[in-house]
Structures are given as C-alpha cells and as structure tokens.
TrEMBL record:
The keyword Disulfide bond does not apply. PANTHER family: NEPROSIN DOMAIN-CONTAINING PROTEIN, PROTEIN, PUTATIVE (DUF239)-RELATED-RELATED. InterPro entries: Glutamic_endopeptidase (IPR053168), Neprosin (IPR004314), Neprosin_propep (IPR025521). Keywords: Signal. Residues 1-21 form the signal peptide. Residues 97-106 have a biased composition (Basic and acidic residues). Residues 81-106 are annotated as: Disordered. Pfam families: Neprosin, Neprosin_AP. This is Neprosin PEP catalytic domain-containing protein. It comes from the Eukaryota. Gene3D superfamilies: Outer-capsid protein sigma 3, large lobe.
Length: 410
C-alpha cells in the first residue's frame, strides 16, 4: 500500500471516529433531554400532589370567582394552621379587645374582593381558602420554596434585588400598627418579580433571628399566575429561612372570618387621575393572650398569628415599616420596569401617586396613637421615591412609588 493510501486511510478513520464520537455525544445529550428532564418533572409533580392536600383541605362548599379562582369553604378547625405542632388540637380564639382610640369612620366596606361580588359567602363555622393548583406550584422553583420569600430583608439597603420605598419608626416598643393603603395594579415585568405595598411589624435583628408580621396587597405573577392586586399576609421567625409563608400556604396564621379570602383579588382598584380606593389594615397584639390580630376594612377581623410562632414578637415589635417593595432581576442588564405603587413618583401627589395615610401605632396600654417621628427612605430614589407629610384629615401620610427603569434609572 502506498504512503498516500495509508495517509488517506488514516484520515478516513479519524473522520469516522470523530463522526461516531459526535453521534454518541448527540445521542447521549438527546437521550438525557428525553429521559432525565421528564423524570425530574415527574418527580416534582409527585411531590406537588403529595403536598397539595396539606393546604387544600376538604371543603363543604366551593365558590367560583370571576377571575378564575376557586374558593373552598373549609371548617375553621380543619384549616392548615392547626397542622402546626404547637397548634394541633386547638380551635380559633374569640375576638380580642380592640385598641382604644380605634375609629371605624370612613373605612372601606368589606365586600372588596372579586370572589365575593356575587354576594355569595362561606357558611358560618367555615373559612374561605383560595384553592392552590398544580399550575401554581409548578411555577415555583421547588415545592419547598412555594409560598415563601427567598431572601433576607434589610431596612437600610436593597437585598437580592429587593428595592424599597418605606416610612418607618424604631427605637421604642410597638404593639401594633394601622394605616389606610392605596390599592393599584402596578405593571410587573417578569413572573420572577413582584410589586407590593404593606405594613411590617418587626422584632429582632436583621440576621437569622428576625421576626416579622406583614400584611398588605401584592401583584405576583409567580405566586398567583396573574397580575391582579391581591390581599396577602406573611410571617417569619427566622429571617425567612425556614419558617413562615404567604397567606395560608403553610401552618401558622389562624383565620376566623368567613367572608375574607386571603390571597384573593381586590376590587375595586385606583385609576390614574380617576377614582381612588384604599384598604384599612390594623395589626395589634391582644393584651390578654398575646396573639397578633389582623383587621381588614370596617371592623372585619381576619384572624391572628399565634404568639407561640415567634421569639422576639412574643413581647413586642421594635420597628414598624409602611410602604412599597419590588423585586428587580435586572433583565438584559438594566433596571426592571416593574412599577411600585401607581407607577408614578411621589411628587405627582393625589390621584396619580400611591399613598399611605392615617399612620398610627399601638402603644403599651393598647391605645392607637399617631406617629410623631416617621422617617422615610428610598433605596433608589431615581427609580422609586417617597415623600412624607402631615395634615388634619390624613394625619401622618406619605406618597411613594415610581416606574422603575427610566432615563435617571437605567
């Protein structure tokens, strides 16, 4: 065989070897994409189907909402809260003593959720629970993280892409807080982002032992699958690490009301240069039993966070915050265009900027008192800002929010 033929044969063998190697690699990759990934999804679906009965309790009645939600009317003593080891065998407490100085004048009526606009409610002795679907849980990165905040908060800086514009007070002992919160439908750019407005009652340090109680409204496509503003609650006793969750998605918060569905869409909402709508929120510590109660609207008790869930909040809060928060994932390397509040800056004022008004705290003797030392802070004021004020009608108030990405917030 000539040297030319030998050389040619070697080249052909190398090409064949290379082709076979490429085919084998392609076959392996294709095989993995066909078998491994579906197995991963099948396992996740199995975990989801095992978890759903823990939060979707057997109902005695179901109500279909116009926005697609299904509301289950669940016997109150069967709600998820009583799966908690510290709460098993208990039943909901009777209503507590209201804070002194509490007025129900000019507060919103309680039929402010889409599901209840038909006039249909859950029977006495039951609570309405928004049904969680497989699709809800499939949007989460994992079953374990579903319904949980995956970050640590800091008052003085943004953390993990979380940006704030808040009013806050600290340096004393706080036994609750109250405000009227303007409701909007801010644009949220990505399913991995959210926009919310809420009250925080905080105790402990901004480390592993942070305790918080939270309530307000939020737009979260990842959690709810749409862009409606929804009433929500949250709690944690370890800085969002392993305890707590949104709404009734884990055991903890005990609901006592048969007309309010936590996690359900709010209606009506405010419009730019049009009608304005706000919701009244009151969180306070029952001086008799120590539980932290939540009132929403005109005298409507929603339920309570049992004091046994907490460490520092077993006594009192050491900070209260009011305001907005968004997640900024920096799509394409620039600031998100997810809006906070109305999506307009505080300087645009009433009918255009979002607001909190009638800010109060509950002091040691269960009395509501106006806030006298409110401080305001915006992490990135070119993206979202805040301006405080006081007047005779609104007491302590502030405007806040913004559009996110703009010429000064690239």
């Amino acid at each position: 065989m000539s040297s030319y033929l030998i050389f040619t044969s070697i080249i052909l063998l190398c090409l064949l070897s290379s082709s076979f190697s490429s085919y084998a690699s392609l076959h392996k990759a294709t095989n993995e994409s066909v078998t491994f990934r579906p197995q991963h999804e099948i396992q996740k679906l199995k975990l989801i189907r095992e978890h759903l009965p823990k939060i979707n309790k057997p109902a005695i009645k179901t109500i279909q909402s116009s926005d697609g939600d299904i509301i289950d009317c669940v016997p109150s003593h069967h709600q998820p809260a009583f799966d908690h080891p510290l709460l098993q065998g208990q039943r909901p407490m009777d209503p507590p003593e209201m804070p002194k100085g509490h007025s129900q004048e000019n507060e919103s009526h309680e039929d402010f959720q889409l599901w209840s606009l038909t006039g249909e409610f859950c029977p006495e002795g039951t609570i309405p629970i928004r049904r969680t679907t497989e699709q809800d849980m499939l949007r989460a990165s994992s079953v374990r993280k579903f319904g949980r905040k995956i970050r640590r908060v800091r008052r003085d800086s943004s953390s993990n892409g979380h940006e704030h514009a808040v009013g806050y007070i600290s340096g004393s002992k706080y036994y609750g807080a109250k405000a009227n919160v303007n409701v909007w439908t801010p644009h949220v750019s990505s399913k991995y982002e959210f926009s919310l407005s809420q009250i925080w009652v905080i105790a402990g340090s901004f480390a592993d032992d942070l305790n918080t109680i939270e309530a307000g409204w939020q737009v979260s496509p990842d959690l709810y699958g749409d862009t409606n503003p929804r009433f929500f609650t949250y709690w944690t006793s370890d800085a969002y690490q392993a305890t707590g969750c949104y709404n009734l998605l884990c055991s903890g918060f005990i609901q006592t009301n048969n007309r309010i569905a936590i996690g359900a869409a709010i209606s009506p909402v405010s419009s730019y240069k049009g009608g304005q709508f706000d919701i009244s929120l009151l969180i306070w510590k029952d001086p008799k039993h120590g539980h932290w109660w939540l009132q929403f609207g005109s005298g409507t008790l929603v339920g309570y966070w049992p004091v046994s869930l907490f460490t520092h909040l077993m006594e009192h809060g050491n900070m209260v915050q009011f305001g907005g928060e968004v997640v900024n994932t920096r799509p394409d390397g620039s600031h998100t265009s997810t809006q906070m509040g109305s999506g307009h800056f505080a300087g645009e004022s009433f009918g255009q900027a979002s607001y909190f008004r009638n800010l109060e705290v509950v002091d040691w003797d269960n009395t509501l008192i106006p806030i006298s030392n409110l401080r305001v802070l915006a992490d990135h004021p070119n993206c979202y800002d805040i301006r405080g004020g006081v007047n005779r009608v609104w007491g302590n108030y502030f405007y806040y929010g913004g559009p996110g990405k703009n010429s000064k917030c690239p």
